[in-house]
Amino acid sequence: MAKISPSILSSDFSKLGEEIRKIEEGGADFVHLDVMDGIFVPNITFGPPVIKEIRSITDIPFDVHLMIDRPERYIEEFVEAGADIITVHEESTIHLHRTIQNIKNCGKKAGISLNPSTPLENIEYVLEDIDMVLIMTVNPGFGGQSFIPAMERKIKHLRKIIDDRDLAIEIEVDGGIKLDNAKEVTDWGADILVAGSDIFKADNIVERVRLFKEV
């Protein structure tokens, strides 16, 4: 069964506490926190102070996705704010291995994210060091985009690599994930699904999370 990581990027921030309690009641496995700096992606969201405040209202593991330039500068701050998994983009840092080791040395799980056009070969030599690969199935920066069909091959290829090498890595998929394609993406090999608008814009958030879990 795939795990569900609802992205609060699509939530109503004026009711954030209430909406987080709803996904908690629905059985969400993580809270997905998209951190954007307006440099690596063309959007700005929030940083460690907001994450720290959210941490005070829930015990759900925090899946923190850093869409920021040179993320190695801020790893400790996100750890202190309450991150459980920290995912950085392969494209955003020169010293990827060093950044991974910094996350692991802080006692947190490390993930690597790849933009749609970035090949899997770029992370060939760090796979043994990470806990998760986040495949972006839209171009990062904004919620509500449509799934890029070519990413099916990428997910399946990564699943084969992980299985052939018997690696303890989870595949997370983010972008255009909806109830009507969730099972398909899971069948391709995804372990964790990130969904934003299809959960938080639903009439019943609790039931929507439950339906994702059932699928």
Automatic annotation (TrEMBL):
Q: Which Pfam families match?
A: Ribul_P_3_epim
Q: GO cellular component terms?
A: cytoplasm
Q: Which cofactor does it need?
A: Fe(2+); Mn(2+); Zn(2+); Co(2+)
Positions of substrate binding: 7, 65, 141-144, 174-176, 196-197
- The UniProt record gives the binding positions of a divalent metal cation as 32, 34, 65, 174
Give the InterPro entries listed for this entry: Aldolase_TIM, Ribul_P_3_epim, Ribul_P_3_epim-like, RibuloseP-bd_barrel
Q: How is the cofactor bound?
A: Binds 1 divalent metal cation per subunit.
> Which pathway does the record list?
Carbohydrate degradation
Single GO molecular-function term? metal ion binding
Q: What is its EC number?
A: 5.1.3.1
Report the active site residues.
34 (proton acceptor), 174 (proton donor)
Which reactions are catalysed by this chain? D-ribulose 5-phosphate = D-xylulose 5-phosphate
| UniProt KW keywords | Carbohydrate metabolism, Cobalt, Isomerase, Manganese, Metal-binding, Zinc
Q: Name one GO biological process term.
A: pentose catabolic process
Q: Which domain of life is it from?
A: Bacteria
Q: What does this protein do?
A: Catalyzes the reversible epimerization of D-ribulose 5-phosphate to D-xylulose 5-phosphate.
Q: Tell me its family.
A: Belongs to the ribulose-phosphate 3-epimerase family.
| Stated name of the protein | Ribulose-phosphate 3-epimerase
- Source species of the chain: Anaerosalibacter massiliensis
* Lineage of source species: Bacteria, Bacillati, Bacillota, Tissierellia, Tissierellales
